[in-house]
Amino acid sequence: MAHYRATESKREQFRRYLEKSGVLATLTSVLLALYEENDKPNNALDFIKLHLGVGAPEPADTEALRMELDDLQRKCNLLMEENKELRNRLLQYEPSPDEGATE
């Protein structure tokens, strides 16, 4: 009988821990959202993961993506400048619409 009480005590401590840390409230709200869905998703686990934010990128991934974005923006800006410069050079060799009409 003492073994039963020790197990029950550990369960109660764990339940209080989950409640105090907000896990129970979060899980309850996600499960409630799933229950209230009119069109139940085919994959309930994906629904739960999505609503728990499990699919969010890790901070290291976020930093790598941010660095890649900065690099790509720099390259885009350089290409835009090059494009602008090449257009200006091209305009030097093309006759303007006014010149073409007088010939």
TrEMBL record:
Q: Which GO terms describe its cellular component?
A: nucleus
Q: Where in the cell is it found?
A: Nucleus
Name residues in a coiled coil.
Answer: 62-89
> Record keywords: Coiled coil included?
yes
Q: Name one GO molecular function term.
A: transcription coactivator activity
Question: Which InterPro entries does the UniProt entry name for this protein?
Answer: AMY1 (IPR026060)
Q: Does the keyword Nucleotide-binding apply?
A: no
Q: Which UniProt keywords apply?
A: Coiled coil, Nucleus
Checking PANTHER family in the record gives: ASSOCIATE OF C-MYC AMY-1 (PTHR13168), C-MYC-BINDING PROTEIN (PTHR13168:SF0)
Give the protein family.
Answer: Belongs to the AMY1 family.
This one is known as c-Myc-binding protein-like
